[in-house]
Amino acid sequence: LGASRDQILGSVFLEAIVVGLAGSILGIGLGIALSFGLRAMLEGFGIDLPSGGLVLLPRTIVVGLIVGMIVTVVAALAPAVRAARVSPVEAMRESEAELWQRKRSRFVTGLIIVGIGAAAILYGLLAPEILYAGLGVGATFIGVFVLGPSIARPTARWLGAPIAALRGTTGKMARENSMRNPKRTARTAAALTVGVALVAGVTVLASSLSASIEDTISGQFTGDFAIDSGGGGGPGAGFSPQLTTDLQTLPEVEAATGIRLGLGEIEGDGDFLSVVDPDTAFDLFDIGVIEGGPEDLTDDAIFVLDDKAEDLGVGVGDTVSVRFLDGANRELTVGGLYTEPALAGNYAISTGLYESTGAEQLDLASYVLLREGITIEEARPAIDSVADAYPNVKVQDRQEYVDNQSASLDQLLGLIYGLLGLAIIIAAFGIANTLRLSTIERTREIGLLRAVGMTRQQVQSTIRWEAVITALFGAVLGLVLGLFFGYAIIYALRDLGVSSFDVPVIQLVIVVVLAALVGLLSSVIPSIRASRLNILEAIGTE
Q1: What is the pLDDT of residue 99?
Q2: 3-class DSSP assignment, residue 96
Q3: How far is CA 17 from CA 30, 64, 73, 77, in A?
């Protein structure tokens, strides 16, 4: 009718502005309401918040409006350009469904972007340069989205095979519908891919950290009891060393040792120092000493992690300059090297040396080894009686100590799951919207199927199983990404004692099942609406 390409572009962008403004206003309102729920969720996970009310700053509203508008307009750019380039003859075709052709260039481009993203992640985690890691995650997601249409068809065929076999005609049609427009399938699953990738990555990370903690304690702590400080684990927190002395006098105890945490400047760089009693510490801990022994940790010596010693260019017998809190520089001899940093950190010194610096002497924890033949149950009353004099300590046997170290991870994991649940909800809306648009595009097709005998229940079943296949595609893709992200982070943390890469299969299977349920629930309204189409009106639709 004479509209120019600029007019088409302008109309699409104007629509994007209106939608962006309306969506941003609605989103800000829902965000304010959601903040109350998040506060309750945080308190439910034991995270204390200030008692004051929630604060809503003007900049929050302004930023929300600006970001919402920009994101919507940018998202409209590619569709607007495509709409402007459609020729009049092509636009008047009966079928407006988007045609897709597999292009090798798309596949190659996606692989290149994924490769660049993966390389950036590894570099950022190993360097470490966290900015590169963040950019790498973004690039990896973009690369996967570019690859999506290229892998959607074969993946949908594979995922839909069991459904086609079990559900007969409706299952076969659902699989064919998800395969015939791979670009739409990939786009529909994109939000779910992001959500599942984050959930899977966090799940793998938490499980691996828990396994590493258990392996570390089981492998390095050879005692039977741990008495923890409630002071938070930093310098200046803890309890009197007298507790350890009193424990050592118990007839049930073979050895008791306290661990303190000091601060120092080693060769000009600040770092923590583990402070131990060399006469007892090595009876309860195995930190992988490869050179030297307990007798070499004297008051003028220091033990150094082997990797740190390599960085400093020192070995046993060399000296390092250490300045403590009293300001005095001490030339300490490297008395030994060890390989396990999880419990000892980068440096270990004797209690005698640390006491000479004038720093406050407090044990962060005390560890107990029982005499041979004494059981946990027999020794606990005596140990509890000593610990009762110190209100800020907690007595735990070996297994309780392991479980307690992992408990904080479970709390954090629950919080993150709650937040990521919001991403899954967003994905559900995306699937529902796309299915609704898909059924509108296929109005005439659905009418013809109804005319040749397809029942309403079969229409609903076809659309629902199509949604499940699409959701499973997004979940599987997200699962692969999540495993990669989790492995990359665990690999980067290996120098900090995180040695186990643990894949929690059951939890990840649950994530995939939940994703399929998200697809199923998202399809309820679109499938009901499609099944209620008037047959004659649907057939006459152009």
Answers
A1: 45
A2: coil
A3: 20, 14, 6, 12
- The CB-based long-range contact list for 91-94 (8 Å cut-off, 24+ gap) reads 94/444, 94/542
Mean pLDDT of 347-366: 88
**pLDDT at 409 exceeding the cut of 80:** no
Could you give the C-alpha distances from 257 to 15, 250, 308, 430, in angstroms and in order?
A: 71, 13, 25, 58
Supply φ then ψ for residue 127, to 5 degrees. Answer: -60, -50
Tokens of 466: 């199509």
Give residue 97's pLDDT.
43
For the CA atoms of 229, 230, 236, 239, the dihedral, rounded to the nearest 10 degrees, stands at: -50
> Which three-class secondary structure state does DSSP give residue 227?
strand
Q: How far apart are CA 231 and CA 234, in angstroms?
A: 7
Question: Are the C-beta atoms of residues 244 and 363 closer than 8 Å to each other?
Answer: yes
- H or E, element range at 367: strand 365-370
Of 229, 188, 237, give the one whose Cα is nearest residue 468.
Answer: 188
User: Tokens 């009293």 map to which residue?
Assistant: 326
Per-residue confidence band for 237, with pLDDT thresholds at 50, 70 and 90 = low
Could you tell me which residues come within 8 angstroms of residue 296 by beta carbon, excluding any fewer than 6 positions away? 303, 335, 336
Contact 534, 526 (CB under 8 A): no
CB 334 within 8 A of CB 301: yes
350's enclosing H/E stretch is strand 347-350
Share of the chain above pLDDT 70, in %: 91
Give tens-digit pLDDT for 420-477.
777 778 888 888 888 888 888 888 888 998 898 889 999 999 999 999 999 999 999 9
Q: Please state the φ and ψ torsions of residue 301, each to the nearest 5 degrees.
A: -130, 170
Q: How many CB atoms lie within 10 A of CB 175?
A: 25
Q: How far apart are CA 485 and CA 202, in angstroms?
A: 9
Q: Please give the backbone phi and psi of residue 56, each rounded to the nearest 5 degrees, phi first.
A: -115, 105
For residue 375, count CB atoms less than 10 angstroms from its CB and return exposed for 0-12, middle for 13-18, buried for 19 or more: exposed
Cα-based distances in Å from 339 to 305, 348, 378: 6, 12, 35
Q: Output the CA–CA distances (angstroms, integers) from residue 138 to 108, 113, 142, 484, in the order listed.
A: 18, 10, 6, 14
Separation of alpha carbons 36 and 425, rounded Å: 18
Residue 255, pLDDT above cutoff 50 = yes
134 pLDDT band (50/70/90 cuts)? confident
Which region holds residue 227: left if phi is over 0, alpha if psi is between -120 and 50, else beta?
beta
d(CA 278, CA 294): 5
Question: How far apart are the C-alpha atoms of 264 and 329, rounded to whole Å?
Answer: 10
Distance between CA atoms of residues 300 and 349, nearest Å:
9
pLDDT of the residue at 230: 58
How far is Cα 183 from Cα 180, in angstroms, rounded to an integer?
Answer: 9
